[in-house]
Amino acid sequence: ELLSNRIAAGEVVQRPASVVKELIENSLDANATDIVIQIEDGGRELIRVVDNGSGMDRDDLLLAFEQHATSKLFDMEDLTAIKTLGFRGEALASIASVSRIDARTCNNDMGEGFRLLINGGKVDRLEGAAMKRGTSIAVRNLFFNTPARKKFLKSANAEYRHIVEIVRRFALARPNIRFHLSANEKDVYILPPEDLSSRLNRIFSKRLTENCITVHEEEPPLTLKGFMGTRELVRRKSGEQYLYVNGRLVTDRMMNSAVYAAYGGHLDKGEFPFFVLYLSLPPTEVDVNVHPAKTEVKFRSEWQIYQFIRRSCEVAMKEWTGDSS
Ligand code: ADP
Ligand code: MG
């Protein structure tokens, strides 16, 4: 089986929110504990992500924007054991080819960093820059050189909402990490490092968190934890459902249907419950065949995972009393 078949290719950059996603993933992969996201005009004018991660040296900074340059996959045979969020090495190169980049990075405590300017994929300038350890990547004028794609961008407000949703997904995935999102210099989220339930409280309304039941089951090596909404939170449209596998947000039919099965008769046709659930299992048990736009997973023992999720949610459901409407 060819490696290229296993790594789903495709367009990395569809809209400002996809840029935000890739930049945050890189910050997390660099072990950042503090991530600042600044956007202007729904990300169409500016997207800047600043982290306090490992940073890069001069050569890595240049390499980072080359196609298929990744520092993350050491064993190309073993795509099943990927622990980082990125591994294709195409995000920054793709983003750089359709925007103006100002990237700054420093990997030492002496404050000796570098700044790289790229214009539509062409390196403009590389110079020294004094800064603290970490990386700051500013993406300006997305699609300035591809008018056809630029035309497909939605209004600033619509693109803004997509970005908020992306940041929210990461914030839920990593409550221990500080996130700060601002739009047009106004704060949207300031999230200190905290535990999962207080992160949930900070992101969602009180009504939502008050109407959740806790899920927490362990059957080594499997763990499922998180929250399931009660009847109060049933919606007519989907969207407020978050499934994480080993800290990575996924879309998975099987996992969804296991949760729905646990709701059983409490859900009518065309109704969608709210839930945030985290599944942990050994990395070798799951194949993260990541498509740039959506994340699909393949489990080695699907049936076992299905049963485990369903059982765990059913245990939690038993605590859901006094609501049978
Ligand atoms: P991938 O994440 O798939 O490796 P990217 O194009 O997203 O590919 O990034 C290319 C490389 O640039 C990464 O492998 C990493 O070495 C480096 N890099 C990107 N962003 C950061 C960051 N915020 N901090 C440190 N290194 C980074
Ligand atoms: Mg990446």
Give the domain tally: 2
What is the fold-level CATH name, i.e. the topology of the largest domain?
Heat Shock Protein 90
What are the secondary-structure elements, in order, as H or E?
HHEEHHEEEEHHEEHHEEEEHEEEH
Mean pLDDT: 87
CATH superfamily of the largest domain: Histidine kinase-like ATPase, C-terminal domain
Order of strands across the main sheet: 5-4-3-6-2-1-7-8
CATH architectural arrangement of the largest domain: 2-Layer Sandwich
* Each distinct ligand: adenosine-5'-diphosphate, magnesium ion
Just give the CATH class of the largest domain.
Alpha Beta
Residue share in helix: 25-40%
Compute the CA-based radius of gyration: 21 Å
Query: How many helices in DSSP terms?
Result: 10
Overall SS class: alpha+beta
Secondary structure: number of strands:
15
Q: Which range does the strand content fall in?
A: 25-35%
List the helices and strands and how they pair.
Blueprint: H1 3-6, H2 16-29, E1 34-40, E2 46-51, H3 58-64, H4 91-97, E3 100-106, E4 112-119, E5 122-130, E6 134-140, H5 147-150, H6 156-173, E7 178-183, E8 186-191, H7 196-203, H8 206-210, E9 212-219, E10 222-229, E11 241-245, E12 248-250, H9 253-263, E13 275-280, E14 286-290, E15 295-299, H10 302-317
Parallel strand pairs: 1-7, 11-13
Antiparallel strand pairs: 1-2, 2-6, 3-4, 3-6, 4-5, 7-8, 9-10, 10-13, 11-12, 14-15
The chain binds adenosine-5'-diphosphate and magnesium ion.
Provide a descriptive summary of the structure in words:
- The chain has helices at residues 3-6, 16-29, 58-64, 91-97, 147-150, 156-173, 196-203, 206-210, 253-263, 302-317, and strands at 34-40, 46-51, 100-106, 112-119, 122-130, 134-140, 178-183, 186-191, 212-219, 222-229, 241-245, 248-250, 275-280, 286-290, 295-299.
- Helix 2 packs parallel to helix 6 and helix 9 (253-263) packs parallel to helix 10 (302-317).
- The strands form three sheets. The chain has an eight-stranded mixed sheet with strand order 5-4-3-6-2-1-7-8, covered by helices on one side.
- The chain has two domains: 3-196, Histidine kinase-like ATPase, C-terminal domain (Heat Shock Protein 90); 205-317, Ribosomal Protein S5, domain 2 (2-Layer Sandwich).
- The longest helix has 18 residues, at 156-173.
- By secondary structure, the chain is of the alpha+beta class.
- Mean pLDDT is 87; it is low at 1-10.
- The protein has ten helices and 15 strands.
- It binds adenosine-5'-diphosphate and magnesium ion.
